[in-house]
Structure formats: C-alpha cells, structure tokens
Amino acid sequence: MPHPLPLTRDAGLAALAAFLDGPGADYAAARNTDRGRGETPTTSALSPYLRRRLVTEEEVARAALHAYGDEGAEKFVSEVFWRTYFKGHLETHPAAWTGYREGRDAARARLDAEPGLRRIHDRAIAGETGIDGFDAWARQLVEEGWLHNHTRMWFASIWIFTLRLPWELGAAFFLAHLLDGDPASNTLSWRWVAGLHTRGKHYLARRDNIRRYTSKGYDPNGLDEDADSLDEATPPREAPLARADAPPAGEVALLLHLDDLNPESLDLGPARVTRVGGLVVHAEEAVARVREADTAAMADALSRAGAHFRCPAAPVSEGWEEGLPVVTAWAPVGPSADALPAGCLRLRRDWDERAWPRANRGYSRLRSAIPTMLHG
Ligand SMILES: Cc1cc2nc3c(=O)[nH]c(=O)nc-3n(C[C@H](O)[C@H](O)[C@H](O)COP(=O)(O)OP(=O)(O)OC[C@H]3O[C@@H](n4cnc5c(N)ncnc54)[C@H](O)[C@@H]3O)c2cc1C
User: Fold this and answer.
1) Atom of ligand 1 nearest to the CA of 45
2) What is the pLDDT of residues 142-201, one digit of tens each?
C-alpha cells in the first residue's frame, strides 16, 4: 500500500524525501513501468498529498531541482507541472467539469435503461471482464485507492475503446476510489485519453506496450487497437480567468478547504489571522476511505494552522468567523469552490497566478515557461 493513512503534511514530506533518496534518481528512465502492487513504485506516489496541497507543487519541484539539478530533475518537474496545467485549464474551461457531471448522470440513467450496458459496467468495476491486467487494476483501485499513471492510461483506454463504456462513468469510478481524485487532473485526463482534450488525438492501449511496461507481465487479448477517437458536438468554451482578491489589512478569519491545506505558505499580505475554520466538501462520488482521508488531512491542517497563527482552529460551524472578513486560498473548479461562502476573499498563490494564464490551450505553452517559473 503506497499511502499509509492518515495523509498528513509530515507523511507527505517523508514520502518526498524517500522518493528523492531512492527511485527519484531513476525517474526519467523508469517512470513508464508499473511494478504492480506490493512493490515500491517507479514514481513518487505523492499525488494524494499534492492534490490537497499538504505539500505544494512548488516545494516538490524545488526539492527535486535541489536534489538533481535542472537537467536531472527535468522530467519529474515537467510532470508536476501537468497538475498545475490541468488546474489552470479547467479554471478557463469550467464547462468541461459541468459537462462531465451531466454526462455522468446521463450515463447512469442509461445503465438503468440498458441491461447489457449495466452488465459490462458492473463487470468492469468488479474486475471481472476477463481482460488480463484490467481486472487486477480495477481491484487495486478499489482496495488501495491509487494506480500508476501508465496504468490509468491503459485502464481508461480499455474502458472507452474496448469495453465501449461511457468515459464519464470511468471518470466517476476513479473519483470514487482514488485518494488523489481531482476534478481537473481526472476529468481532463479522461478527456485526453478519449481524444476530446486534444481533439482527434486519442490514446489507444496496446497489448505490446502493456506487456513491456508491467513487471507482472500482463498480456491482454482482444483490445481494440484501431478505434476512432470520441467526438462531441460542443467542446467546452474558454472562459476568462477570474481575478483573485487582495488580502485586507487587519484581523481576518482564514477558511481552509481540501484544495489547499498549506496555510503556512499562503501569502496573506497585511492580514492577521485570528480564527481558522476548516470546510470539508468531499467529491460526490467519494467512497468512505477517501472521505476519511479528506477529514484526517483537514484535521492535520487545522492543527498546524492553529499552532502557526496561535489562534483557535476548528471545523467551520455557525458563526465561526465571529464577524471578521473571511479569506481563503483560491479553490479551483470543483466541490470546494462551489461551497465557499458568499463574500469570502479568494487569494491566489503566485504559482497559480503565473501559471494558469498559460494553461488555456495545450501544455507546451506552460512547459516552455517552466525555467522562468522556477528561476525568473
Ligand atoms: C485517466 C487518468 C485519470 C487521472 N486522474 C487523476 C486524478 O484524479 N488525480 C490526480 O492527481 N492525478 C490523476 N491522473 C494523473 C496521474 O496519473 C497522477 O497524478 C499520477 O499517476 C500520480 O502518481 P505519482 O504521484 O507517483 O506521479 P509522479 O510521476 O511521481 O509525478 C509527480 C506529480 O506530478 C503530477 N503528475 C504526474 N503525472 C501527471 C499527469 N499525467 N497529470 C497530472 N498530474 C501529473 C502529480 O501531482 C504527481 O503526484 C490521472 C491520469 C489519467 C491517465
């Protein structure tokens, strides 16, 4: 199990240090291989911590640069920026998220109306399709809450192009069980595999590739390796990036949410925090283990925030802010953003402020800005 619970900042920092001391040095060469359950992953497995910003993209990228230098860290840092990219992209294409939710609900209605589709779906999520590899991955996802990136790509591709299941149901299955389940990375990665993110360019899982990059040597028969990409009548329209607020001078109440559990590093300008409240809003799909991980991660953040700001810190309750202005770290598109109280001031980290305007199209624009983001 790569993620001992509870998820805390200390556990995230320990995982980062262990990765940089161990598999990180071989990341660029080894990262495509999934060693399978029970083995040390070839990748960092930091995503459940990064997703909640128990550790931030910036500190992880800088730690890798410090350990390996610009060249040695390049591949890893570039992968970290994919998270930042997807967040900025969903921020400028929120219709991709609403479209996912509508598609998911429509697909669930189809399951009720079409027994054949329901049978294939239920076998897929139970790991009973008979497709080598796929069945083990479905069980691993449910039992451990994490899958290697390459495996997520194969899984999503087989789901869409071989099993011919609606992609939104696969994305919902991931969001239910992944400890790193994330509206931006998950929705946009499923759309990317389907050929909807980069229109017409889809990802087809190939038997040879799976055989080569799985240490357990999975060898699936009968994959559709020639399928056409999916298409959609109305791709999500680009929306302007909303402006962030400035922190006010004087006493404030700081609201924490699951998209940013790193209050110590938030630039609060002249504001002085005298109350901290924690707002836990789970993904609708999330199963009990993911909800427990969310709640424990929030408890960790509240206890750190209370010590850092030397003030009361507790889950939000009626009147918790005691009439003070409420400030919060920016919540990107997703359940936390939907639940923020009206009138609260949303502060954006410099990292997001600089990166997100470059995330409205393909990844290459942000990738080319990485040296400036880190050194400029
Ligand atoms: C179909 C599909 C669904 C996915 N759903 C999610 C999701 O819900 N939540 C999520 O966090 N990631 C998701 N990913 C992205 C990626 O698979 C995971 O972030 C990655 O596997 C996490 O493992 P790691 O921490 O060992 O990554 P590493 O390879 O060690 O990379 C370090 C960090 O970089 C970021 N990163 C790396 N690869 C990607 C990527 N392709 N896209 C976005 N960020 C990346 C992550 O924050 C990761 O923790 C999905 C990918 C696919 C193909």
Assistant:
1) 26
2) 999 999 999 999 999 999 999 999 999 999 999 999 999 999 999 999 999 999 999 999
Distance 141 CA to ligand 1 centre (A): 14
Shortest-distance Cα residue to atom 29 of ligand 1:
43
Backbone angles phi, psi at 262, to 5 degrees: -125, 60
Atom of ligand 1 nearest to the CA of 186: 5
Quote the ligand 1 centre to 46 CA distance (angstroms): 9
For the chain, domains (ranges, CATH) are 9-91+357-375 (1.25.40), 95-213 (1.10.579.10), 250-347 (no CATH)
41 Cα nearest atom in ligand 1: 26
Sequential DSSP letters for 204-248: ---HHHHHHHBTT-----S--SSPPPP--SSPPPP-PPPPPPPPP
Question: Phi/psi at 269 (nearest 5 deg)?
Answer: 50, -130
With beta carbons less than 8 A apart as the criterion, state whether 243 and 315 touch: no
CA distance 326 to 316: 12
Mutation probe of ligand 1 site: the residue of 16, 189, 209 with most atoms within 8 A of C-beta = 189
Nearest protein CA to atom 16 of ligand 1, as residue: 149
C-alpha span between 212 and 200 (Å, rounded):
26
Q: CB of 220 within 8 A of CB of 158?
A: yes
Nearest protein CA to atom 49 of ligand 1, as residue: 47
Give tens-digit pLDDT for 89-131.
Answer: 999 999 999 999 999 999 999 999 999 999 999 999 999 999 9
